[in-house]
Amino acid sequence: MLASVEKGFVLLSNPKSGTTALEAAFERFADIRTGGSPKWKHLNYDRMTEVFGDYFQRQGCTIYGAVRHPVDALASWYRYRSRPAARRSGEPYTGDIPFSRFAEEWDGRASPRARVPVSVKWCMTSAGAPAPMRFYRYEDLGLLLEALCAHVGETVSLERRNRSPERPLDMDREAVAALPRMRQFIEAYETIPFVGR
């Protein structure tokens, strides 16, 4: 999470959504930044309000977040966990299996290497509704960048961060979308009121 009360924005960092690059670009404007462990880096709206109450809302801040389509988020996790560094460090590793196996393990909750968060849950409140904030699709990260630039009053450029290695996928989008567990995430994704929709 990155927040600038002076500039009037809060950026919540959803895993696998490009927000690490945004945080790096706008960190110099921030009054508050949470990071370190994923628990603090990737605060969702409910967790933010547990920690900070309604402080940012009372200050008139606009709260932003980006969301990747659940199918694309799962593919990104597969690629990310195939990094040679993951294997060397003992992290869950997917470089030795095809994507179809990873997706099946994720669907069946069968393996630690396939235990990954799907970003759409991050967007929901504990009541199951989209959080009261401005959501941008991953594909519209440029629009989110423009919104943050408007807050700070200058043009800011992004450098790619946390880029996963390219790997071919042996399962098409339709097949991944048809997985029983994936369908519920896609249905939730379709309820999010994205900016620009």
Description:
This protein is of the alpha/beta class and 197 residues long. It has one domain (2-189): 3-Layer(aba) Sandwich (Rossmann fold), CATH 3.40.50. The chain has 11 helices and 5 strands; from the N terminus they run ββαβαααβααααβααα. The protein has helices spanning 19-26, 38-41, 45-52, 55-58, 70-80, 84-89, 99-108, 119-122, 141-152, 173-177, 180-189; strands at residues 2-4, 9-11, 32-33, 62-67, 134-137. Strands 3-1-2-4-5 form a 5-stranded mixed beta sheet, covered by helices on one side. A hairpin with a 4-residue loop joins β1 (2-4) and β2. The longest helix has 12 residues, at 141-152. 32% of the residues are buried.
- Categorize the overall geometry: globular
Strand order of the largest sheet: 3-1-2-4-5
Number of helices: 11
Helicity range of the residues? Answer: 40-55%
The chain-level structural class is alpha/beta
- Strand percent estimate: 5-15%
Q: What is the H-and-E element order?
A: EEHEHHHEHHHHEHHH
Q: Sheet with the most strands?
A: 5 strands, mixed
- What is the architecture at the second tier of CATH? 3-Layer(aba) Sandwich
CATH topology: Rossmann fold
Contiguous uncertain segments of 5+ residues: none
Q: If you average the pLDDT, what whole number results?
A: 92
Question: Topology, pairings included?
Answer:
Blueprint: E1 2-4, E2 9-11, H1 19-26, E3 32-33, H2 38-41, H3 45-52, H4 55-58, E4 62-67, H5 70-80, H6 84-89, H7 99-108, H8 119-122, E5 134-137, H9 141-152, H10 173-177, H11 180-189
Parallel strand pairs: 2-4, 4-5
Antiparallel strand pairs: 1-2, 1-3
